[in-house]
Structures are given as structure tokens and as C-alpha cells.
Design goal:
LeuE-type; single chain; LysE family transporter; 205 residues; mainly alpha; cell membrane
Amino acid sequence: MSDHILIAVFLPTFFFVSITPGMCMTLAMTLGMSIGVRRTLWMMIGELVGVALVAVAAVMGVAAMMLNYPQIFEVLKWVGGAYLGYIGIQMWRAKGKMASLDNQSTQISNQALISQGFVTAIANPKGWAFMISLLPPFIDVERAVAPQLSLLLMIIMMTEFVSMLAYASGGKSLKLFLAKGDNIKWLNRIAGSLMIGVGFWLALG
């Protein structure tokens, strides 16, 4: 798979999944409203490190298995594609509620903010399942894994940071927009449709 195809398919899919309201995005918005965007950047650092760790662990673990058992790759493609389709259907059926978080203290330290972001990223089982399902099929084991993984990580880190910054900066206006009508529902449906499409593409590709 060429890098251009990878970017063309992976970037919009991960962006819409990333921008969909979840624990990390809601945390960024809540902190942005309570302690300001500048201090919320500390939480983002921890979250990005956590997401990168999950992505690397998912790819390296599955890639190592694929090198030893190449036939598993075909099964992995179908299982991963089916799981992504399942996620897409679940997103379509979601009722569009914001994730709930406790009120954040304005006295929290920078170190605590980093830890909060890191723990939020690595403690999310859905995040692990998503990375294990989506990332490995984009890795060609016949080529050097490190450059491919670096490109995927660059896309992931960029989209996560842009999404969190948007939520933190949007504050009350973004919260009102998401709470209005069916806005979250349609955002979920866009992301869900992309997930279903990529699921078919991975399984049949």
C-alpha cells in the first residue's frame, strides 16, 4: 500500500473518529472551560503520549505475530474489518450524549494534568480495541515497519491534538452546539459511515 493511499484512507477516518465526543474530548473541553486552554495543553501532552503508546503496542504486537504466522493476516483483515463495521453500526445507533466527567479542579498541578491525560488514554479498552483492529492492516510486513508506523503515529498525533485543541478552545460555545438538536448524532453517523466503509475496504482489500 502506497503512503498516498494510506493517508487518503486513514486520515479522514481517524479524524472523524477522533473528533467524535468521547472521554478525552470531553475532558479537553471541560478543562478548557475551567482552567484555560494553555494549562489544558499539559493534559494533552499526557493524552498524546498515552495514545502513541497504545498505537505502538498494538502494531508491534500484531506485526510480530504476523511475521511468525503470515496466514493469520488474512483472518486479521476479516476480523478487523468486521469489528470496524460493528463500531460503525454502534456509532450510528448512538443516541448522541456527551461523555460525563466530574468537575475539574482549578488547583490541579501540571504533573497531575499530564497523568490525567495519560491514564485516560491508556485505560480506555475501546481505544485498545480500535488500535488493534484498525492499525495493523495498514502495515505492510514486507516493508520496513518503523517508517510506516511513524507515518501512522504522525497522523494520529496530529488529528488527536487538533481535535482536543478544538474542544478546549470551543468551550461553552462548542458544548452548546453539541447539545443542540441532533448535532452529536450526525457527527457519530459520519464517523460510523467511514468506519463501516473502511471495514469493508480492509476486509476485501
